[in-house]
Amino acid sequence: MRTRRPIAVFQHTEVGAPGAAVPILESLGCQVELIRIMDGDAVPPDASRFGGLVFMGGNMSAGDPLPWIAAELALIRDADRRRIPVAGHCLGSQIIAVALGGAVRTLERPEIGWCEITADASPTASEWWGEHAGQVLPTFQWHADTFQPPAGAVSLATGVHCRNQAFVLQGIHLLIQSHLEMTPALVQLAVERNGHQMLRQNALANPATSDYLEVLRDLPRRTQQMHGLLQRLYSRWLA
């Protein structure tokens, strides 16, 4: 069943734009309300007028003492009390984890660029991934932190360099560490603005970071693969 109430999508930075997330939600019959934290939009005081909340990425940490992070934590807890589903990408998933009883810590090494994850093959994971359950999946990553999900969360995917990749909580809340929403233009923007981080990790021979010269290769095909995965996850999330 699709909700008639809008889905709120929270954008925290320019590079952390929602990318394919908005058109995918719209293709699934949703009205989307974009809340641009980066431009000073206020976090709503409660979640009652929304059918779901989606929190995008950003270069900050979920533990930073920023007023809007505190407001998002309160909003997520309010949504949880009302059984309104929330979903997060990268920083967004970490904020959700903290709000609902989990934690965030720094990874041993940053995970940047194209990294494979493995979708779980459990009955719950199969509900969310469909035909992709049990498969190795291509994803785009850019993070130095990882979330420890709240008690009772069910794993949907794991990774070699960052184990906690995707979880579902209480059957309705979706936490995704990777950036399945990336478009070719967003990948190019991320490299343009933050490519120095990738070069530094390449110099350190970090196995969790893509080669700088390889990361922009074949972007239309790679990002389209991820959009298919995200459409599947959002379809289940909205059910």
UniProtKB/TrEMBL annotation:
Glutamine amidotransferase domain location: 25-169
InterPro entries assigned to the protein according to its UniProt record, in alphabetical order: ChyE-like (IPR044992), Class_I_gatase-like (IPR029062), GATASE (IPR017926)
Pfam families on file: GATase
Parts of the chain that traverse the membrane: none
SUPFAM superfamilies the record matches: Class I glutamine amidotransferase-like
Official protein name in the record: GMP synthase-like glutamine amidotransferase
